[in-house]
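Input (structure):
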């Protein structure tokens, strides 16, 4: 199992390096292209799809020969049940695969335990209805060509504009922010979040972070996830300007959002 995992990480790393070189060559192209390339690099870490099944079959080899059940629960029972051990000396005879599982599983569990509550909170956004901005919001959706159902909410639970939710995305605007921005500035900021919805960035971001949680021990994936975030934001910035927002209004709106967070 250790050898299989090592080869898989090596292949994925080499693939990511190739993607990085291509992204460098395409630095003058749109950020959306580079974002897609880095997303493919992340997907390579869970391919081939048989990797996890190989992991499970390798774990089965850790069981005594008289065991007929396989899978993670059986392996864990071997570690916590003395009846599964024929000799007391086997307690200290932990192989490399055993040690990797003992380290990886708790780390993976911690990563998901920390992330899932935040993900659940984003799936259930709360806030007041959009109010007088409804007409402007619908007009912006039409301008960007967004047909999906996306709602606009104002809430004290966020400190900056953000797109929350997966199946039912919602643009969340901090309460009080609209009073500090001009109409054009607010529209450009909302247009940025609608660009995220059009690109389905909430889904791709969740996918990338889930892969990072699985391979939490590998620094390269953390770096790629940060790179994805940067390219994702740049791609939405480009869409805001492409769909008619004034660059001056957009920059002014971003600066006011930053001041609002202070």
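Output (sequence):
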């Amino acid at each position: 199992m250790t050898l299989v995992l090592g080869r898989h990480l090596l292949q994925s790393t080499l693939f990511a390096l190739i993607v990085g070189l291509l992204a460098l060559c395409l630095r003058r192209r749109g950020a959306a292209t580079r974002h897609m390339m880095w997303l493919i690099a992340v997907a390579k870490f869970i391919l081939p799809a048989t990797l996890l099944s190989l992991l499970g079959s390798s774990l089965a080899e850790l069981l005594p020969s008289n065991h007929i059940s396989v899978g993670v629960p059986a392996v864990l029972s071997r570690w916590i049940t003395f009846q599964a051990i024929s000799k007391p000396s086997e307690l200290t005879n932990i192989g490399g695969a055993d040690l990797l599982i003992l380290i990886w599983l708790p780390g993976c569990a911690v990563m998901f335990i920390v992330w899932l509550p935040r993900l659940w909170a984003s799936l259930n956004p709360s806030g007041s209805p959009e109010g007088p901005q409804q007409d402007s919001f619908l007009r912006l959706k039409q301008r960007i060509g967004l047909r999906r159902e996306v709602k606009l909410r104002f809430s004290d639970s966020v400190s900056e504009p953000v797109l929350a939710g997966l199946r039912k995305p919602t643009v969340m605007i901090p309460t009080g922010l609209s009073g500090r921005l001009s109409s054009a500035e607010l529209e450009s900021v909302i247009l940025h979040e609608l660009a995220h919805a059009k690109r389905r960035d909430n889904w791709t971001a969740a996918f990338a972070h889930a892969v990072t949680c699985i391979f939490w021990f590998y620094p390269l994936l953390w770096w790629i996830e940060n790179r994805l975030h940067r390219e994702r934001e740049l791609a939405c910035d480009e869409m805001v300007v492409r769909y008619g927002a004034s660059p001056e209004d957009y920059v002014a709106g971003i600066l006011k959002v930053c001041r609002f967070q202070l």
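Notes: Residues 67-72, 74-91 have pLDDT under 50 and may be disordered. The CA atoms of residues 59 and 101 lie 9 Å apart.
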